[in-house]
């Protein structure tokens, strides 16, 4: 079993380059399934979730050829709908984008119920509402979601309920892109990766406008053609390294990012007294003084991103006075808190808010990655903790972060990967 070891105390210096955005790459890869032609997708992050997504498409008949570590040629001309493999699909939540893509191209889809990080309930009622509005019949049977339509999908006005769902916005765009007439998604998610998906599809000949606003309009087209497209930089990865620098202290320039996407994170770091300098595609983070207390509330974009919440909580552990983290996007994203408590954090969770009391500092401990961003959080905590922190379950981290150990090592972190023997099997009860 592999673990990540972090010895705290080293300040970070130098620059770290951000990879392509996981949550843009996954929808774009699934969208390539709509195109019976050659698509070249560049600036992919070299992460397990991308490899799994490409393998799902390959096993369903798409030609998939890696051109470099971060670029791929996909031709879905011979793609066979309804044959996604359950054990691959359940590994990543984004596999449910197959529903919209298969429905959009073939009028039928049959996909295993989605997995993904456990933040309490993660329903897909808004996805189903969108598919049914377009004219599809959707059933959930034996752990599979089956969507069918006997006639071409017809564009409709669809209003998403509650929090603007990223997944539902993506899935409805994929289903509507070749529907008859125009589909309007109201209360749509505004995340940069929605814009990236719309840009990819428009480069393939789709007719989508309003992506990035709460109203996305998709005018159905007959067919899509191949294209070459480069994925945007990962704003969540960028936020993770900005926070790592603020936690460990020192001076780090995070490069190949879009400062506009980072505004909510940058504003909170400045509020905590962290030094920020911005360029066209880089942000320099310097921290010399004690972190000031702060009140953070996650919101859909352009608010503070929920995917940076666990990482940000490490700074709240270290801030003077009392700080607050309110999670308003997911039911329960606080499972990582127990791991920070093992390291000495003084935190109470009251409903959707975690309350962080001032402490002297964190101490190294054996901890686990409870999910992707919770794993990043305990690594950042290890950078500042006294002694050594040992992180297990690191496959959850590597599915979403491209080369995180090497990138941190390159800016001065005392971090390494260690292979440890599998724990001895417990004696069987006789
Ligand atoms: C995407 O998840 C991301 N995953 C998540 O990133 C991210 O946290 C989330 O968007 C919010 O930004 C990928 O892109 C692969 P949602 P998704 O649908 O689409 C509720 C990471 O760390 N909801 O926007 O599943 C839902 O329960 C991962 O990279 C419904 O009620 O998120 C949640 O409370 C973690 N019904 C809220 O909306 C629905 O039909 C937002 O969920 C759909 C969602």
Task: Explain how this protein is built.
The radius of gyration is 22 Å and the shape is globular. It contains 14 helices and 23 strands. It has helices at residues 22-31, 48-59, 86-89, 97-106, 125-133, 166-176, 192-203, 235-248, 263-271, 309-318, 337-342, 372-384, 395-398, 404-409; strands at residues 2-7, 12-17, 38-42, 63-68, 71-75, 108-112, 137-141, 144-148, 157-159, 182-186, 207-209, 215-219, 227-230, 250-255, 275-278, 282-287, 295-297, 323-326, 347-350, 353-356, 366-368, 388-392, 414-419. The protein has 430 residues and is of the alpha+beta class. Strands 21-22-1-23 form a four-stranded mixed sheet. Ligand EPZ is lined by residues 22-23, 26, 93-94, 117, 121-127, 162-163, 165-168, 189, 306-307, 329-330, 372-373, 400.
Can you give keywords for this protein?
4-stranded mixed beta sheet; 25% strand; alpha+beta; globular; binds ligand EPZ; 14 helices; 430 residues
